[in-house]
Design brief:
Shape of chain B: rod-shaped
Order of helices and strands of chain A: EHEHEHEHEHHHHH
Shape of chain A: elongated
Oligomer: heterodimer
Structural class of chain B: alpha+beta
Number of strands of chain B: 21
Largest interface: A-B, 21 and 28 residues
Radius of gyration of chain A: 23 Å
Structural class of chain A: alpha/beta
Number of strands of chain A: 5
Helix content of chain A: 40-55%
Strand content of chain B: 15-25%
Number of helices of chain B: 16
Strand content of chain A: 5-15%
Largest sheet of chain A: 5 strands, parallel
Amino acid sequence: MASHAVQPLGIPVVYLVDDETVVRDALAWLLRSRRLLSEGFGHAEAFEAYLATRDLAGGWPDAPSCLLLDVRMPGTSGLVLFERLIERGLTSALPVIFLTGHGDVPTAVAAVKRGAFDFVEKPFSDNALVDRVLQALEASGQAILQRRGRLAVQRALADLTDREREVMERVIAGQANKLIADELDISVRTVEVHRARMFEKMNVRSAVELANLLREQAP
Amino acid sequence: MTTAPPPPATLATSPSAPPDGGSRSPRLLLWVALVFLLVVAQTLLVVLTLRYEQGRAQDRTDDQAGAAQGEIRRRAQLVLQGLQGLQTRDGDSTAWPGLAEALLRSQREIARIERRDARLQITAAADSPFHPPLFQRMPRAEMGLEAEVACGIARRLATPAFSRSQFVPLSSGLGVEVVDVCVPVQQAGELVGFHVATLLLSQWLDEARGADTGRSHELSFVEGDGTRLARSGAVRGAGVYVAERVVDLPGSPLQLRVDAAERAPSLIPNLATALVLGLSIALFGVVLLLVRDGRRRAAAEEALAESLGFRKAMEDSLLTGLRARDRQGRIVYVNPAFCRMVGFSADELLRATLPPYWPPEHVADYQRRQAERQAAAVADEAPHQGYETVFMRQDGERFPVMIYEAPLVTGTGKQTGWMSAVLDLSSQRKVEDLSRQQQERLQATARLASVGEMASLLSHELNQPLSAIASYATGSLNLLHAPGLPGADPAAPDPELLPSLQHALERIAEQAERAGRVIKSVHDFVRRRHQAHEVIAADLLIESVLPLVRLQARKTGARVELDIAQPVPRVKVDRTMVEQVLLNLARNGIQAMEADTPLAERVLLLRVRLAPAPAAAAGRWVVFSVIDAGPGIPADVAQRLFTPFFTTKPEGMGLGLSLCRTVVEQHGGAMDFENLPARPGNAGGRASGTEFRFTLPLLATRPPPG
């Protein structure tokens, strides 16, 4: 499927939300040493303000990203922010890794059950953390690609004419061209033309490919 | 009694009684009526008695009068007959004087008999030999008028006739009343003369009256105007009981008066009256006394009943149990509150030889105590202050009570037993227990919270710098090991590398210093606690935890004993911490005895002794021991006893003993324990208890003052 990706993924970004400047700075430095871009926020409100500037409906994030989130923060806590992200359905494209201090482990575990990517106890084993971050970015990329494919199929389906859709439904059902022509009361030749145009619009080469595409990317 | 006054009811219900007088006026009226009736009855009785007496006296007088009247008539008749007898032998005039003489002798009232002819000339006369001759002072001729009148009547009627009475003066200067009786003498139907007899009225009365009549009554003839003509009798009449009879002699009726010598009966000498009156008064007095007595008694009874009722109500509504026992310790009285407290009825308690509310396991103790108290009472040293003990309810529940007992002394000063007030302490104790438990829980929670808070704070404070350090270090290593950017010369060092590393290393140093500051602040905190140490006597330490220990001990029935060396050693400690250690050890000891130790052996001993320090250290030690009588500590437990988070209690944290040891060691002491050897009689060789010891350095000081 990557073969027909319309647009390559952007540069991965790691978002850091922690009230401790030192920790944020240290983590950013660590990530940079592994050649990862990061962006730090001192509190949950700042990150939410950043989110507001993004086009969440139009497919943000367009690059793989993940969020390192401190559980305990003054103001809006990490958990509250996490709940809001769940509400917006962002947690698959923006996996959340919790950073917990002493005593927060049970809350973090509960958060993982609710859909967080992972949690890491402070003090953390740093490269292991970066490895988890990379995994999270990978997962994020997958999620973004999946979403793009789905959007593409939806757009293609919307492009089809009525006749082409009728032909497509019968092709997926496995009917031969002749039968389709009889049912639609058109010539076999016309069916072939519609079928070729439909294949082109859906960016597939065979009926099998078409069926797979629709099954995987079905809205 | 027919003359009785209006019935008293009329008086009692008289509308004149004031309506608002209540019970007083009707009662007064009743009394007035009663007195009035009694007076009336009394008066009537006396009057009737007197009247009866009078009636009897009058009757007697009347009887006498009747009898005298009859006798006078009879004698008059005899005189007449005698006179007529003179007539029969008229022819023989010589015989007349003899006959007259005989008549005069037989009829002594006749003073003189005359014989007259038809022209009333005296032909013969005879005088009574018993009387002096009548007509010596005054000649008969002058006194003949009355006789002639009588004779005139007699001639006219041809029957004997009496003359009116007349006074005849005597030669002695006195005089007598006489009456003449004229009897016509007829011969052959023709009047030929008269016989005239002169009768002495007084003599007549003398003859007519009986022998005893003269002693009690005076007889007299009176004229119509009451003038007495003649009298007879040994006594003078009193003029009270008088009976008059008319003796109707032909021609001239005579009035007879009988006058009793008896006087009107006077009140006092009258025996019957006096007796009746005295008895009545006595009766009245007795009735009065009885009524008064009855009223007093009723009032007293009412007051007594009221006070009894009040006392009973007081006893019944009392919340304190009351119990009285005799000198043998048997219960003689209990109030309802006591019955409610122990759950036995009063009957059961009074019948029982041994108080049923004594818990069976304490009976021996209680009996000994009672014997001691009896001995003390004999010596007059009965303790008056209350003491605490344990009673048992009917359902077997034990409960603590406070007893205030005092000797029960009668009015004559003799002690008959003991009176006790019994207070149920169980609810109070429950509240105490509850509040203590709550307080302990609160303290524990607070301690836990502060420990947790501290740990959390510390971990946060340390986590931040440590995390940062780790991140910088890892990042630096990453940079050092990483291959250069694609296209860069691998041999030539990245020009950015050194500044980056420098940056990281500076941060690492910063954060390390920050972590160091955190650690130092903890140290400061500990040092501050150390400066809070104070000098305190060992017994004060124990005393301050004793109330809590005793509270705990009482719950399981254990006793707490103290054994503190003299003079009391002093130590310099963090008081709160050491007290906590003592409390922990004591609680452990009490809990160890809860399960298997018999109640009588549950003794927790707190001991303080001096001991020489180990060779290395100078000075001496104070050894605090907490000794229980529990089953001892098994070997496998003993090994791990001071390990943090090791516990044998279901809800324990396992911090108690390890913290205790830490505290003791912080004070420069040591802590250990030892299972006490089994008692010889103890089967199975089980330990007879455990001794937990900890030492604190003795404060080398001046000798204690005093």
